[in-house]
Structure formats: structure tokens, C-alpha cells
């Protein structure tokens, strides 16, 4: 690759990260609504609810799949951009942060598929992984923000 600058690629990375964080916040909100719906006795009156709790669940699922896709896109951008610019990986601690986030997001999605009445631990695992994922997002954003400075004019 012989590009004048990789700046455009890191701009896509920054936007995708913003969308990922937005998706995370929406997942936390819809997850909390599902928790309330499951634990409250009387039929709750939430928004989007005419379809019942199944609607909330599929909304949560759709946003979750979007977040997983965004993180995999970010992984691809990071690897392609780094190889294109330096020819090898391992330029900073951002590599470890990126890999940790990818693993956590995949574990979160896998644990979500295991949630059921006979597997209550999967729900706790899903939540625990997602709390750690928040810190992972902060770490990958800060290290990404710091390495992107090299490319700024
Ligand atoms: C990685 C993408 C994600 C996928 C595919 C996903 C999917 C799911 C699924 C299928 C359930 C089970 C719903 C049910 O009880 O039937 C669930 C539950 C839940 N999710 Fe996620 N989720 C994701 C990310 C997140 C994130 C990032 C958060 C919060 C920060 C979150 C919070 C919750 C909560 C709180 C519940 C439990 C609701 C309850 O207690 O009934 N999820 N998720
Ligand atoms: C989930 C989010 C992200 C993942 C999984 C990820 C993944 C990666 C990976 C694996 C690399 C290769 C690192 C190396 O070998 O040294 C990389 C490089 C890079 N990423 Fe990310 N990244 C993410 C978010 C971001 C963000 C938000 C930015 C800022 C805009 C960013 C900017 C960069 C830059 C500039 C490089 C080149 C490395 C360097 O110059 O040292 N990344 N990314």
C-alpha cells in the first residue's frame, strides 16, 4: 500500500469507536429494561413494549450484533493500517488492549447465547464480562487516541 497518509483510516476507527460506545450504552439500557421486566411482578409499561419483552430482547440482540461487527471492523482496520504503515504488528500497548477487547466482546456474545432458565450462571457471566468490557473500551480508546497522534499533521 502506498498511501499519502493513513489519517482517513484512523478517522474511520475513531467514528467506529464512537458508535461502539453508543451501542454499549444502548445495550446497558435495554439490558437493564429486560432485567426490570423479568424481576418485576406486575406487567410494566415501557416504551417499545407493545411487542412484549421479546421485542426488547431482539432489539438488545440486534444492537449486540452491531457492536460485535464494529469491534471486528476496528480490529481489521488496526491490523491492516499497522501492517501497511510499519510492516509489522506490536507497535504499542494498543495491540494488547485491542485483542483484550475483541476477546471480551466475543465472550459476551457467546455467554448471551447460553442464557436460559436452566443456566442462570450464564446471565451473571454475561453481565460480569460486560462490566469488564467497559474498562476494556476505555483502555483501547485511550491507547488508540494516543497512537493516532503520530498520524496527525
Ligand atoms: C455483545 C453483544 C451482546 C449480545 C449479543 C447480548 C445478548 C443478550 C441476550 C440474548 C440476553 C438474554 C435475554 C433474555 O433474558 O432472554 C442478554 C441479557 C442481558 N444483557 Fe446482553 N448482549 C450483549 C451485550 C450486552 C452489554 C454490553 C450489556 C451491558 C452493558 C448487556 C446487558 C445485559 C443484561 C443486563 C442482560 C440481563 C437481562 C436480565 O437480567 O434479564 N448486554 N443479552
Ligand atoms: C475495539 C477497538 C479497537 C481495536 C480492537 C483495535 C485494534 C488494533 C490493533 C490490533 C492494532 C495493531 C496494533 C499493533 O500491532 O501495534 C491497532 C492499531 C492502531 N489503532 Fe486500533 N483498535 C481499536 C480502536 C482504535 C481507536 C479508537 C483508534 C483511534 C482513532 C485506533 C487507532 C489505531 C492506530 C493509530 C493504530 C496504529 C498503531 C500505531 O501507530 O502504533 N484504534 N488497532
What does this structure look like?
The chain is an all-alpha fold. The protein has one domain. The chain contains 4 helices and no strands. Helix 1 packs antiparallel against helix 2 (about 55-85). It is elongated, with a radius of gyration of 18 Å. The model has no long low-confidence stretch (mean pLDDT about 90). One protoporphyrin IX containing FE binds near residues 38, 64, 67 and 108.
Walk me through the topology.
Blueprint: H1 7-39, H2 53-86, H3 94-114, H4 120-148
Helix pairs in contact: 1-2, 1-4, 2-3, 3-4
Bound molecules: protoporphyrin IX containing FE (2 copies).
One protoporphyrin IX containing FE binds next to helix 1, helix 2, helix 3 and helix 4.
Describe the structure concisely.
The chain has helices at 7-39, 53-86, 94-114, 120-148. It has 153 residues and is mainly α.
Largest sheet: none
Percent of residues in β-strands: under 5%
Q: Total helix count?
A: 4
Classify the secondary structure makeup into a structural class: mainly alpha
Could you tell me the number of beta strands?
A: 0
Overall tally of domains: 1
Helix share, percent:
over 70%
Rounded mean pLDDT is 89
Q: Name the bound molecules.
A: protoporphyrin IX containing FE
Give the radius of gyration.
18 Å
Distance between the termini: 20 Å
Which residues form runs of ≥5 with pLDDT under 50?
A: none
